[in-house]
Design brief:
The complex is a heterodimer of chains A (about 280) and B (about 750). Chain A has about 280 residues and is of the alpha+beta class. Chain A is built from 12 helices and 14 strands. The chains are: A alpha+beta (about 280), B alpha+beta (about 750).
Amino acid sequence: MESLTPKTLDELTEALAQATSGSRIIAGGTDLVIQMQRGQTEPDLLIYPGQIPELRTILLQKDKLHVGAMVTMQELTAALQSIPEFCAISDAASGVGTPQIRSKATIVGNLCNASPAGDMLPIGKLYDLKLKIVSKDGTMSLIPIDQFILGPRKNALQIGQAVVGLTINRKRWVGYVSAFRKIGFREYVSIAREGMGALVKRLPDGMIQDARLTLGAVATTPIRIPEAEVLMAGRVLDENLLREVAAITARTIHNNCRPANRLYKTEAAQGLVADLFDLLRKRT
Amino acid sequence: MKTVGSSRPIHDAWAKAAGYTKYTGDIRLPGMVYLCLVRSTIPHGRVKAVHPEKALALPGVCGVLHCFNTTQRTFNRYRSRFSQDELPNEERAFTDYVRFVGDRVAVVAAESQALAEKAARLVEVEYEELPYSIGFDDTLEGQNCLPGEEPVRDEVILENGTFPQDNGMIEVDSFTELPRLHHAAMEPNACVADYDPYQQQLTLYSPNQAVHGIRVVVANYLEMPFHKVRVVKAAMGGSFGAKQEWFVEPVAALAAKMLGRPVKLVYSRAEAMTGAIVRGAVKACVRGLFTPEGKIKSLDMDLILDAGAYVGNSSDYIRTLYSKLFRCYYVPHARYHARVISSNTPVAGAYRGWSAPEEALILERHLDAAAHKLGMDRVELRRRNVLLPGDIDLRTGVPLEEIRIREALDRGRELFRWNQLKQEDADFNASNERYRRGTGVGCGGHGSTYFPRHDDFGEGWITMNEDGTIQLKITTHDHGCGTVTMLKMVVAEVLDIPDSDVYLAEGDTANTPIDFGCFASRTTFVLGRTAVETAGALKTVLLERAAAIFHQPMEQLYVEGGAVRNRENPNLVWPYAEVARQSMLQLKRNVSAQAQFNNVTNPGVTGAHFAHVEVDTWTGYTRILDYLAVQDIGQAINPAMCEAQIQGAAQMGCGAALREEMVVQKNGQCTSSLSQYHLFLAPDLPDIQVELITDGRSTEGPFGAKSIGEVCYVPAAPAVCGAVNDALGSQLGALPFTPDCVLKYLARERET
């Protein structure tokens, strides 16, 4: 196995030119190293882009958020936890694994790994996030999340391509509050059994103008809950709304998840939605 | 007492925390090769062929040993002493008849760990598959039996007392089902084996609980005399029973002998989970008869233990489980029917408590059911049935001496505010739609020695160095819980020196006296007392030598502060170093001693644990709000260490009650990753409150001490299970009470 550690974007494209179908890009390595140790993958070439300064930056502007591909969960949490429209991201990033994992694992790696249980997948869908991709010929392109996550552990990257970062249209979400909550087998160090993200825009009197909800770890790729989103408009975050949204969420989960976990995941929807609402209420 | 009863850090805690400790996995001998096992991928079948060619073709691969090029001889993983002739030798190092997914078929030796693992994946094995079973029902139906085999591998009916004839007794029925558990020691099973063909000398290094037990098994297996097999207990990162049965050592020993090079075998986490031992799956029905006042008149227990692929320790295990009925409660009549079955699943074996935790889960569930039926408070019901000081163990006739389980219940009820909490919970539950709170209590008893099942004894060798410090040799196996520190403290107390002046090497068959190993919670009780006797013998030698050297009347001499002194003349002080040196110079003799201790008691050692939980009925999560462990310990030699052990036991118990479960899928694959085995973590827990009851002192233990390591785990899971059932108003008996289990129960309740 060979390894390359490009220090500039140009060197990255040069490295990508050497990549084959057996080559892998390693970011935090919290998924890939485990796969390699189990013998599930034996890359011929590993490319580590962690020394490219642009990939380590978080750019928070009035109209957009740009996150480099090597930004860790821990760095992202620290950068976004006090920004109401991006709290969902820090909720999700701060709940991944342990402090040790969060200091290595990256948000982009989580998306590229495309595990159905990945916490960043419902987050990506929540914000209509776009991935910035570089090809070996040096061209850059932007791919929407829906076209990037193709299925369980399957993303849209071609041989000779790498994700260099992601962008979110911040203007679209100004004035919203957000939250993410997941249910695992335990409270800490737990992989999501179901996760839910929310973006809500409220008037000063608390009435909801617009809402968006996404579910992760239910279907093979993240899903929206349009029926509940429509229902929430014009309402306030009260117990009645909670019951109705929980019922729709439960139905959505029931219709989308595998039979083996259906009973639990459906029943637990009420708790998931209630906890999510609690977070949203606190973030007025 | 100056040392005993004060708190000391564990001897190697700093080194472990700093990453300095050298575990077996860190050992590198010159010329050493690394082993990786090839394991069966099917649950039951015959190996038709092993194709090692692709593995052998890799540069750096030194050999592939498998079922067709190694000995047909067999061993028993559970044997731990020379006298267990009844145990069948049922395992080969590599088998052509596989009985579970994970059975050993071959091993690859290579110049690096990574290469060995890669090569092991290239070994091709051809199987002829046989029908298999994974659960109680299909196994009992004989689905995996070969012609001539019976599904029940062992069966026992035991009875004590006579069936009660009283009128007006109340009948209570309960059912409990317990899943397989993984020990989750941080360090996996491991062994380094070194064979010198020129002296025919084998040396094994492993984290283990019985160096002499391994010597019996390996020497017999490889047909070697005992003095040619040296077994060294290495630094250990936890055991909980996972390192008291032998499978890494015989395999590594065979490989080293055949390859003519030192070998290292370190299990992966997946191997430690599925290829080592698990706590076996158990289910039990109990029918009890109680007086209207809640006194137990009779218990009738019907139990099945699934031994997994090999019977291993299971025959002894079911018999020991029955004996635990008589270590905490007064049971005037008991009848017990138990069966061992053998499915195609990971092998059942030792686990902290060695059947007592299972017995307690079954019995405490039953007592909660009885309290429910009788409309009685759960603590009060237990109070009326616990054994009292002066009672005897009705199964063995051994006096329970100063057993303190009733005091533990009373102290706990008060400290935990049991009665107030019950009222507060009722108020909380009445006014809360989502969360439900409940309290639980669990009791349990254990032993402190093998006695009277086996006669137990210990031996110690002790020498004083020229500077007055001490070399102690007692075959101890510290799991990481501090028994080395405990023994040093005991010796320091007797000789009135700082415990830092004592050096204690751990078990090494070439250098320390024979010992039965770390079983039956016997280390503090038997070996601690052995240390008292050994240090006492040295003290006598010291006084004799001082009398001779310094021409003093023996009866005037005593020891204090690391020196021999004269009671009549405070100016006459001879530091130990002076006595040791002068003994060599003038008497031409070393200051040393040897002692044996024969143990003939096994006092009652018990605990009562209390848990307060909050169940989220919308997600099924259970949170531990409060936890109190009251332990009847006698003298705590090192109280902080005891408290930490009890806190760890509470953590394990919470896991067993609420989360931990090794699931065997339909294809025979078992849970093999900690990402699917949900241990309780430190942030999941409140501060575990510990209360030690120290006046129930033993007659034989060092300074009145009794055991702690296993007994403190026994009541833990029952207390938490009881609290969940209290919160939900349920009678759940199939563990663990996972979120899934809770929501399934609530959904079913809603429908009925």
